[in-house]
């Protein structure tokens, strides 16, 4: 069973890799993503400097992560619609909590899920997740669809990043001293997947507020 897979932690301290952990739930997770996107559509946000991000995104939960000329932040309403973000589906929360526990973080209670859609060529440069208020909570990241190469760096941007291949259903958990490590996604290669078509979808669960 996916929940019984042995977590890989030794090669990358602070990061737990759970291969196939979300595999069985993947179709239901994608159905929930489509429902969320019907109310809060995917969009390519711009950095404070005005550069359009290559991955499209949306959110669900009590707040959502946004980026524009005012900076990076969480807010309770979708700037595109003016409405609250869609509620986080129970299947999202349950999966995030089980994965966090498998990674050594029992009691995780995420209040937001960032949903990124990577089409071929889209990437995420090395960055830290530092817009949250409580860094004692972990990050839980779920891969769906096309494979990707996860870049796992260190506490400094200049630290050499390891390259970790991710397949659909794989889950990553990181926290503790590694909570603010730099990380990213290499450009996604062209292809198609039965679950997502010509795209990779990533769910990132956090405790933002």
Record the SSE blueprint.
Elements: E1 15-18, H1 26-39, E2 56-61, E3 64-68, E4 71-75, H2 90-102, E5 112-118, E6 124-127, E7 139-145, E8 148-152, E9 162-166, E10 171-174, E11 183-185, E12 200-206
Antiparallel strand pairs: 1-10, 2-5, 3-4, 5-12, 6-11, 7-10, 7-12, 8-9, 8-11
Classified in CATH, the superfamily is: Alpha-ketoglutarate-dependent dioxygenase AlkB-like
Instruction: Kindly provide the radius of gyration, computed on alpha-carbon positions and rounded to a whole number of angstroms.
Output: 16 Å
- Oligomer state equals single chain
Low-confidence stretches: 1-6
Q: Beta-strand level of the residues, as a percent range?
A: 25-35%
Helix content: 10-25%
Write down the CATH topology: Jelly Rolls
Number of strands: 12
Give structural notes.
This protein is α+β, with helices and mostly antiparallel strands and 209 residues long. The protein has a single domain (12-206), classed as Alpha-ketoglutarate-dependent dioxygenase AlkB-like (Jelly Rolls), CATH 2.60.120.590. Helix content is 13%, strand content 30%. It has 2 helices and 12 strands. It has helices at 26-39, 90-102; strands at 15-18, 56-61, 64-68, 71-75, 112-118, 124-127, 139-145, 148-152, 162-166, 171-174, 183-185, 200-206. The strands form 3 sheets. It has a 6-stranded antiparallel beta sheet, with helices on one face. It has a 4-stranded antiparallel beta sheet with strand order 6-11-8-9, with no helix packed on it. It is globular, with a radius of gyration of 16 Å. The protein starts with 14 loop residues before the first strand and ends with a strand. Residues 1-6 have low confidence and may be disordered.
């Amino acid at each position: 069973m996916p929940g019984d897979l042995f977590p890989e932690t030794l090669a990358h301290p602070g990061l737990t890799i759970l291969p196939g952990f979300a595999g069985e739930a993947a179709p239901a997770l994608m159905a929930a993503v489509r429902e969320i996107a019907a109310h809060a559509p995917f969009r390519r946000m711009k950095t404070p400097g005005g550069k359009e991000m290559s991955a499209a995104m949306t959110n669900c939960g009590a707040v959502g992560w946004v980026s524009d000329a005012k900076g990076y932040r969480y807010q309770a309403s979708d700037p595109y619609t003016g409405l609250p973000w869609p509620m986080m589906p129970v299947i999202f929360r349950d999966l995030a909590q089980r994965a966090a526990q498998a990674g050594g973080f029992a009691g995780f209670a995420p209040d937001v899920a960032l949903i990124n859609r990577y089409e071929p060529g889209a990437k995420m440069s090395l960055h830290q997740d530092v817009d949250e208020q409580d860094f004692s909570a972990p990050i839980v990241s779920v891969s769906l669809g096309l494979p990707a190469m996860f870049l796992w760096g260190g506490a400094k941007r200049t630290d050499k990043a390891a390259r970790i291949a991710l397949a659909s259903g794989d889950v990553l958990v990181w926290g503790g001293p590694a909570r603010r490590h730099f990380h990213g996604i290499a450009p996604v290669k062209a292809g198609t997947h039965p679950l997502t078509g010509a795209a990779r979808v990533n769910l990132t669960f956090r405790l933002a507020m």
